[in-house]
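Throughout this chapter, every protein is written as a compact record of paired, labelled lines. The reader may check this reading against the record printed directly beneath this paragraph:
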Amino acid sequence: MCGIVGYIGVREATPVLLKGLKKLEYRGYDSAGIAVLGGRGLEVCKTKGALKNLEEKVAALLPRADGNPQEARFSGTMGIGHTRWATHGEPSDINSHPHTDISGKIAVVHNGIIENHGKIKEWLSGRGVTFRSETDTEVIAHLINYYYSGDILAAVREALKRLEGSYALGIICENDRDHLIAVRKESPLVIGRGQGENLIASDVPALLEYTREVYYLDDREIAFLSRDSVEFYNEEGERIHKTLSHIDWDAAAAEKGGYEHFMLKEINEQPKALTDTLRPRVIPAGNDGHSLRSVNLAEIGFDSSWAKAGRVVICACGTAWHASMVGKYAFEHFARIPADAEIASEYRYRNPIFDPHDIFIIISQSGETADTLAALRLAKKNGGRIIAITNVVGSTLAREADLVMYTWAGPEIAVASTKAFTTQLMCVYLIALQFGYLRGKLSREELDFYIAALEKIPAQAQAVLTNKETIQRFASLCFNKSKVFFIGRLFDYAVSLESALKLKEISYTHSEAFAAGELKHGPIALADESTLVTALCTQEALFDKMDSNIKEVKARKASTAVITYEDVHHFDQTAGAVFRIPRTPDCFTPMLTVIPCQLYAYYCSVLRGNDPDKPRNLAKSVTVE
């Protein structure tokens, strides 16, 4: 995944591009570059490393040679920019975007993968084209140039016919100073509509300083931007109409707000995010003529098709798959219906069995995850009805699903997801509860009881956060452990998976999760004095068994920690450290137990000298396989 920005208007483009890339730096940070079209023609500046390297390089070039505005470097009102997460070619100045054609008059930025770039490269090489980089993107610039004969839009359309794979593209041409072109296929791209200026970006935060009016490009659509208008075309070159959308985000929500890192800010925003996700979906007692609370999920509806369902299938990748695991347990617990949690990247290749009455739920923070979207399309092709859970309004998942339930988490900038995960949990709990009630597996009184418990979760999450210093102190003692294992059973096992992922993502510590009952079936061979084992213990019926697991690893000299309820002292004499959460029904503990684990991962990352917002080799939204 990479970040793309583009600008055409009356402002100087360079500052706009650099600010936009700053907002998108979470999408890629092994190199960055800009191309600006001005009095000196098309100028490109790109460099390996973080965005600050590009800013320094551009700043060194900006002083004017003789005071003549025409001689100002990178002075122009039109340009494109890119921050890269490498897929083809190692990070280097040459492999950085933008890429240009032989003439140096066409510049391209690209997010995605051109799957047939090898064949195109061979074909172009046979026609005298010399390649400078190792990237798949460079073939796009040369291909457009091959077809160019004075009409850049026509050349782009011809080039697209040859491309296979996924791409979001920003394209400018020195011979057309009035237009910026954007193209999208399976990679996100948003068009910002301003006054006397228009922009493109991979994600909304890059646009908020300039406009809140946006168009979302769909697959195989082309946007032709001038300073005063935006025209849209399909791949056949026919004009199409797009609906303008308004963004309601507070721009400040995408800033750090005084926190050292976005991740710490987003961990601390979870009480608010949980409240925002829950409150609009709860009908207070008395508001529907009853004395008990109820759930309002009109956005996804509960029509007669739900009554015919024999199975729930929840499909996702990474952190969202861990939310799916919790969802599986929740549907089986509340609705007493079989449920499967499927890894999207496996599901799409497995020749799965479909039933037209299945309830198919897709979860993705960004709504742009490539494997998850492929699973969605496979399910739709086989007659599935898709319910999407996502945080991004207007995302591809939101547009292609039949029904959408948004997690109102606000923008999440850090690569490692935190508040998006807990709000995904809130959504699956609400669906499972309502479904359980409609199936007659929960009484009205039981539904009211569980809703009341959910209403307490935001305040309980805040209570966990107020004790974060204890986690920080513990991290200072254990951050150098070479192996960290998380164990748990049922709901606790699902959170163990997410906790291990968070730690490995940002601290680069070897961490794994095991169902606690499997510990003695192999994993315990790894336990020694270099190991930390964290046990999540909130399933009360299993406390004695968890206590035995802790004693087993302690006997192998491993350090131990437990996360359990504030009124439970079962593990005080067994575990090396105990972290406590407020009382809630066992099934809802994942929204609380994950917070100490998120904090532990964050503090370990910082103590190891890493940037927790931008972990190496990772990107926020995996828009390629």
Summary: The two ends are 10 Å apart (CA to CA). The mean pLDDT is 89.
